[in-house]
Amino acid sequence: MELNVLSQFAQILGGISVVVAVVFGIVQLRQFQQQRSDAAAVELMRSLQDGEFTRAFRLIYALPDGLGAEDLRARGDEYEEAAYAISARFETMGLLVYRGSIPFLLMEELVGGAVVALWCRLQPWVYDVRSEQEHRLLWEWFQWLAERLADRGRPGETPVFEKYRDWSPKR
């Protein structure tokens, strides 16, 4: 074989190697993104399954919409503590969604309805506390998250048990 032919053959192999490396990199990146999404889902679920959050959720969810700070406090200290716990949890979640650490659609599927429902119950309390503490930014990410979910029509969506009634696992 001549040196010229070997040189052309080496260039072709080099080009193929670059293409294979790029394809491999793209596949690896997609796998990493899926792993990150899966890890976010696990952490999100873990953060919502502790006893404090469960107690807080139970207390606040049972309340009617529209209770201000005075009415909430009249029910007992545990109600305002629950309001703080719920607000802090969803405040963090809102920021993580905004920054892309937790995919919005994943959060929406896991707790979207609960975020909107709890915001409806706590909104007057949040506004009162912001006013009392002269702190307009208090629970801003909780509010942002609830408003984004409400804008997407989350409260009026078909429940998944109806939407995916005919779903079955892949075999």
Radius of gyration computed on alpha carbons: 25 Å
Quote the beta fraction: under 5%
Biggest β-sheet: count, sense, barrel? none
N→C terminal distance: 53 Å
What is the β-strand count?
0
Task: State the share of residues found in helices, binned by percent.
Answer: over 70%
Discrete helix count: 7
pLDDT under 50 segments (min length 5)?
none
Shape: elongated
Order of helices and strands: HHHHHHH
pLDDT averaged over residues: 89
- What is the structural class? mainly alpha
Give a concise summary.
With 171 residues, this protein is mainly alpha-helical. 76% of the residues lie in helices and 0% in strands. The protein is built from seven helices and no strands.
Give a description of the structure.
The protein has 7 helices and no strands. The protein is mostly helical and 171 residues long. The longest helix is centred in the N-terminal third of the chain and has 45 residues. It is elongated. The chain starts with a helix and ends in an 8-residue tail after the last helix.
Key features of this structure:
7 helices; 171 residues; elongated
Topology:
Layout: H1 3-47, H2 51-61, H3 69-74, H4 77-98, H5 104-133, H6 140-151, H7 160-163
Helix pairs in contact: 2-4, 4-5, 4-6, 5-6
